Please model this.
Amino acid sequence: MTKAIALLSGGLDSILAVRLILDQGIEVEAVNFASVFGTFASNSGSRMEAKVAAERLGVELTVFNYSKDLMELIRQPRYGYGKNMNPCIDCRVFTFKKAREYMRQRGASFLITGEVLGERPMSQRRDSMRIIERDSGSDGLLLRPLSAKLLPPTVAEEEGLVDREKLLSIQGRSRKPQIALARELGIDYYPSPAGGCLLTDPGFARRMRDLMEHDPNFTLNDVRLLKVGRHFRLSNTAKAIVGRNEKENKKLDSLAVEGDLIFKVLGFTGPLTLVRGNLKDHLSELPASITAWYGKAKNEIEVDVSYIEHPTGKTGVARVSPLERERLKGLMI
Model:
C-alpha cells in the first residue's frame, strides 16, 4: 500500500491536505514540529492541536521538538527574515529535510503539506517553494494537495500513486475555499487561524532582537523568558521582567537561573520582577523602583522592595520611590 508522510500542524490547511490524500486510499502518517516559538505558553499547545487532528483523521502522529535547531537558524538565516524575526524559508528547509529523512525511515513514498500558493508572503511564493524543495532535498517528493494543480506534477502524480485530477488549485490568502471544503467534508475540528509562530509577532520580535543584540549566546531559557511579563532594558548587560499576574509571577520564579535576582514590594500586593544579567551598583535601585510602580504601591512616596538571589538565597531590601511613568516607558522593550 502506498504511504505518505504529512507535516501536520493541526491547522485547517494541513487537515484538509491529509484528508484529500486519505480519500485516495493512501496510508498517511503525520509528523509535527513543535518549538518554543509556538504561540502557546508551552510547546504542548502545538502538539495538542496536531494530536486532536491526527486522532480525528485516524493517522499516527510523531512529534519532534526542534527548538534548539531553530535557535541556531535565527542567529544567521541564509535567506534572511520575514517582516519581523521569522526565518521562514530556512525553517521550512530544515523541517522538510527532517521529514524527508523520516519518510525514508518509514518506507513512505512522498511528503504532504497543507501549503497554499500565495497564502504566506515569504515562504509560500512560487520561487520560495522551489528553493525549499531544492535545499531540503525534496525535489519531486513534496506534494501540496491544496494547490497541486497550480504546481508542476510530483513523482507521486507522474507514477500514478496519486490522482492529480482529485487535487485542488487553491491560491491566495482567503480561507473561504478551505472553509467551504471543510464544511463539504464534515470537518469541524480545526482551530481558528490565530495560531502560528511568535517570531512573526512584532512585540515578541522586538524582544528577540534585543536579546540577540545584548546576549548573542542566549539560551533556551532566555527565549522562554521572552514569552512572560513586561520587559525592560536596564543596561547593555542587564534586563528586568515584571510579571503581569500571579500565573506569570510563578512562571518567572520557575525560570530563574543562577545569578538572577527576584524583587517584590513588601507590605503591598504586586508583581515579582526577575532581573537577569550584570546589575551594576548604580543600577541596583532601578528594578526595585520599576517593581514598586506596578501593583498597589504605585501611589506611595516610598516603599520597601526586597530582593533575593537565585539560588544562594542572599537577600536585601531597597527603599525606593516608584519609577516615573515616562522613564518606565523609555526602558520598556
